[in-house]
């Protein structure tokens, strides 16, 4: 198997255990898990202890866990906005801050934290050349809407309704949406 994806089923917490299983099945290959901060707090942090226990048995020790850290249960937040027209409910959607990269270092793994987009490529290079498993913590903006190009009119209407209904992040979302739109449709100015 080359990849596994939970898709839109909202299955949380399977990325890190799947990556561990992949390493035991193919200890000579790199395994990569892409997980959100909610899933990482659900069980991923505990699974790092398992990785710390067994990684020295693998012929290729590289297992990379990229944690998308936006301190929000973001998939659910956006489903609420787009599917139901409901604003973000902070009491159930906010994820507590946790130092994922620092925690990895505490238990003998490598931790890399990325706060700026320009640093991501170099961080991946370091992670892929590491001599041990890596937690790659990437700080992301929860207000960038993951809107596909095939959004339905009723979804667009629900999305706008959520923003107009007192969503606490409405202004940030509008700004991020505008930037995203501008990047896609406004030609880049080249410096000569």
From TrEMBL:
<dbReference type="GO" id="GO:0000287">
    <property type="term" value="F:magnesium ion binding"/>
</dbReference>
<dbReference type="InterPro" id="IPR029061">
    <property type="entry name" value="THDP-binding"/>
</dbReference>
<dbReference type="GO" id="GO:0044281">
    <property type="term" value="P:small molecule metabolic process"/>
</dbReference>
<dbReference type="GO" id="GO:0003824">
    <property type="term" value="F:catalytic activity"/>
</dbReference>
<protein>
    <recommendedName>
        <fullName>Thiamine pyrophosphate enzyme TPP-binding domain-containing protein</fullName>
    </recommendedName>
</protein>
<dbReference type="GO" id="GO:0030976">
    <property type="term" value="F:thiamine pyrophosphate binding"/>
</dbReference>
<dbReference type="Pfam" id="PF02775">
    <property type="entry name" value="TPP_enzyme_C"/>
</dbReference>
<dbReference type="InterPro" id="IPR047211">
    <property type="entry name" value="POXB-like"/>
</dbReference>
<keyword id="KW-0786">Thiamine pyrophosphate</keyword>
<dbReference type="InterPro" id="IPR000399">
    <property type="entry name" value="TPP-bd_CS"/>
</dbReference>
<dbReference type="InterPro" id="IPR011766">
    <property type="entry name" value="TPP_enzyme_TPP-bd"/>
</dbReference>
<feature type="domain" description="Thiamine pyrophosphate enzyme TPP-binding">
    <location>
        <begin position="6"/>
        <end position="138"/>
    </location>
</feature>
């Amino acid at each position: 198997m080359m990849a596994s994806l939970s898709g839109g089923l909202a299955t949380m917490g399977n990325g890190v255990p799947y990556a561990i299983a992949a390493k035991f099945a193919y200890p000579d290959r790199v395994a990569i898990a892409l997980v959100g901060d909610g899933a990482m707090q659900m069980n991923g942090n505990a699974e790092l202890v398992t990785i710390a226990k067994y990684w020295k048995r693998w012929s290729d020790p590289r297992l990379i866990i990229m944690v998308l850290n936006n301190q929000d249960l973001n998939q659910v937040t956006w489903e609420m906005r787009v599917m139901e027209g409901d604003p973000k409910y902070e009491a159930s959607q906010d994820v507590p801050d946790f130092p994922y990269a620092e925690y990895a270092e505490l238990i003998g793994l490598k931790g890399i934290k990325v706060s700026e987009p320009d640093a991501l490529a170099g961080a991946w290079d370091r992670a892929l050349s590491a001599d041990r498993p890596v937690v790659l913590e990437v700080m992301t903006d929860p207000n960038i809407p993951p809107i596909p190009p095939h959004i339905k009119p009723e979804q667009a209407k629900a999305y706008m309704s959520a923003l107009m209904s007192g969503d606490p992040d409405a202004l940030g979302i509008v700004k991020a949406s505008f930037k995203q739109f501008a990047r896609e449709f406004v030609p880049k100015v080249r410096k000569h």
